[in-house]
Amino acid sequence: MASAGGKPTILLLRRLDSSFATALRERFHVLDFHASGEPLAAFLAAAAAAPEPPRAAIVVGGGSIRADASFLDTVPSLRCIFSTGAGVDHIDLAECARRGVSVANSGEVYSTDVADHAVGLLIDVLRRVSAAERYVRSGSWPVQGDYPLGSKLGGKRVGIIGLGNIGSRIAKRLEAFGCVIYYNSRRPKDSVVSYKYFPNVHDLAAKSDVLIVACALNKWTRHIVNKDVLEALGKDGVIINIGRGANVDEAELVVALKDGKIAGAGLDVFENEPRVPGELFSMDNVVLTNHVAVFTAQSRSDLCAHTISNLEAFFSGQPLLTPVHDDSIVD
Amino acid sequence: MASAGGKPTILLLRRLDSSFATALRERFHVLDFHASGEPLAAFLAAAAAAPEPPRAAIVVGGGSIRADASFLDTVPSLRCIFSTGAGVDHIDLAECARRGVSVANSGEVYSTDVADHAVGLLIDVLRRVSAAERYVRSGSWPVQGDYPLGSKLGGKRVGIIGLGNIGSRIAKRLEAFGCVIYYNSRRPKDSVVSYKYFPNVHDLAAKSDVLIVACALNKWTRHIVNKDVLEALGKDGVIINIGRGANVDEAELVVALKDGKIAGAGLDVFENEPRVPGELFSMDNVVLTNHVAVFTAQSRSDLCAHTISNLEAFFSGQPLLTPVHDDSIVD
Lengths: 331, 331
Known about the structure:
By secondary structure, chain A is an alpha/beta fold. Chain A has twelve helices and twelve strands. In chain A, helix 1 (18-27) packs parallel to helix 12 (297-315), helix 6 (111-127) crosses helix 8 (165-176) and helix 9 runs parallel beside helix 10. Chains A, B: Residues 119-293 form the D-isomer specific 2-hydroxyacid dehydrogenase NAD-binding domain.
């Protein structure tokens, strides 16, 4: 099914930089929500009523537009939803499966960048890089005396929740620092023999010095790090989250940090982005970044190529490169 | 030669935490400059005139007390100088050798921590961690729009100046991130075949995306990164310095950053510590820490054990564990 000019019609529901948008328009007839200036409901209704309604949609990972039953009712022509993120928590996978709508995500495009950022956050928390930065920039170095010691990476037991594309890359990097790798996932990975597997996150936390959240967000992993897990991690423990904010019970995390029940945190994601709990701003043992773990020029470029490859596969009747199924999303 | 109580006398010329000081006093008769409250000249003269003058001294790495001919003239009984740092730029090695005064340093005690910090600085500069931190803590995230993209670690050509204890550990870590490792040192390392060797730093900079200074400071390496090297590194290049401030021509570095002749810098050391050039404070592409690359509780504890082992070796006539010679100090 193609529009005038022979290009297949796609629904674009996220903002893209101009080179990405241009590359899409060269290949597809793009119905661009943000460029339309219309309210979402009116935009979707018009798209659905077009002579060549869209069969594929591009949505933003973790965005405000949810691909749920109501959305699919509005544009019943859709047969493929492509998320530009690794996470698909904004897509109702069961509903898509029921209707025969295939789903794809960014696959491994972001995995190395997110893993790099996770390691950066961990070094920062343990070695107090951002805190030292504030100390230097405030002019405190020449006038103050002792500076608090950091904590060595080597020998740290790092528990990774979700040993998928991202988690396994984090593990590989941290092995080079002399860390000991533990992990939790729904099932042990047959291919992984050198990392100890923990069937539940509480036990993983109890045995770990550092807990890194690297799993997808879904009904099983919402608040997978809760009050009990934080207490099991303990007062010398550090938590790193590059998954989704709601993987961690943020209110309990703030309490644990305030009460010294854990030692520190490095957070790239938050439960109500862009809102970050104000209590964290006064803490020197937390590192806070604005969901930038995927933000590199190279991954943007890779994402553009990957998105087009998936859409071309879909429109030519080939298998999607990075399909997402309802049962494949824990790690 | 021992003091009353049978303990050998040592000169302590740096401040130590209490557990380290206690461990020393259990084994040695410690003449403690900072505890004495005396001016340095008077303190040294009194030590030299004591019935059991000190044969060993502990000095701080990179500190203000220089172990030069004048110092050695003042306390002629000294036969061993132990630096608690890896760098010995404050010790006149040639003069020590001429007088038969042996020198030892901290060896590999700090190497992993410094390597970890170097990698942390590099991730921070490339992925804008501290800059994102400021953005979040200032409350900008909810009100501002686009955030600038960072740069991927994978594929970066990293030129390491000095492939010694620290540089080789930096290389090992960055290999796990998919970086390509180049290096410069006075001689190629026979044991290293997988990293390309560059006999001079200018050529290394010209071929590298990132330059990491991991060499000792001495007459050959002072300002080894100068204006020409910075220009060879180029406008997309990043410099990381965890060596000594004076390995880099700091004034030229500031100019290069201001003029956009290089892309960014991560600096743990400065030419006139604790003074940091004020121009750097307004830059978002630099990361500044207060010479904390060695600051972990674990390395402090390791240093205590290592110092005592070296001193006990010296006083029992055994070889020092980590001797430093005049020709062994580039990398």
